[in-house]
Amino acid sequence: MKLLTHNMLTSKCMKGVNIGYPLKIKAVDLKESEVDFNPDFISRIIPKLDWNVLVSAASSIGKNENLPEDLLPEYEKNTEFLKRVHHVLLEVDVVNGELICPESGRKFPINNGIPNMILNEDEV
Amino acid sequence: MFPCMKLRVLEELLQDVTDFTKPKINLEQYVTPPHLASHMLYTIQTQYGDIKDKSIADLGSGCGALTIGAAVLEAAFVIGFEIDPDAIDIYLDNIGDEDMLNADVICCDVRSIPSRFDKFFDTVIMNPPFGTKHNQGIDMQFLTRAFELSRGAVYSLHKTSTRKHVLKTAKLQGVVGEVIAELRYDLPASYKFHKKSSVDINVDLFRFEMN
Ligand SMILES: C[S@@+](CC[C@H](N)C(=O)[O-])C[C@H]1O[C@@H](n2cnc3c(N)ncnc32)[C@H](O)[C@@H]1O
């Protein structure tokens, strides 16, 4: 699971959960790999992200890459910055671990990079 | 015409994608055959440029034929959503150690994809369950969710016999669709309760444009 995906996932579907965001990450295994850098795509995706959640998620697994607390102005012209965001979003993979609902504490396992968000019938 | 790898090369690549080993009838698990999947993806890229450099969702991604195909055609990022962990295990075998890195799969019900994903994707591609028997209406639930998730286009396969119904459902959501290809689907007999080992059915490849 990449941090881009993490930024979008919630546990809001659960009974009794209001926001279910952001999910905490417990990372057991991490993997880093190289993915083609596509600056236009990264610039387009940034406005859709919750920036603070990305920065704290990256820090929580020790892969912060010096991302600033506040998004840089005119970031779309800053290739060096976009490269770091690219790395954090797409090149870091949580292979094994857990996502944890901030409200209910429900744990969603991550195995072989796949987060399992399936809920039991009594949870919806 | 938008740039794309050769159709033949894509089809060959997709021939290596392993099918469901123990298909679950209630989830309507049948793979999009390589011939069909490659034509579908090739058309989407060459005619409309809707794969390369785009963010893509594959709803009901199964063993990954469309997810892998879209990633191979250089999508910027693909997310597959699939309810069945056993199908995802086959997907994981299919990608193996290959550098198929621009994709993630999430194990979840398409009907409970978080609303944060709304309008997140440039393109949604899917071969949804047809919605037969006990599953009635699931095809239209997939379609409706796809419309919410995409801000560009949605591509979906449906039985030709349901064409009118598909167009009507789309219209009710204010979405205009068209059939961009008519294809033949070699469906395993288990899904048709047929005596023959497989049976050809006609399917439409739809393109819906979001606005
Ligand atoms: C016709 S198969 C297509 C598989 C794959 N996309 C392909 O093209 O080969 C439909 C897939 O949808 C999955 N599915 C069925 N109902 C689902 C649901 N409610 N949420 C997510 N996936 C579902 C099935 O497990 C199956 O893998």
UniProtKB/TrEMBL annotation, chain A:
It comes from the Eukaryota. This is Uncharacterized protein. It comes from Holotrichia oblita (Chafer beetle). The lineage of its organism: Eukaryota, Metazoa, Ecdysozoa, Arthropoda, Hexapoda.
From TrEMBL, chain B:
It comes from Holotrichia oblita. This is Uncharacterized protein. It comes from the Eukaryota.
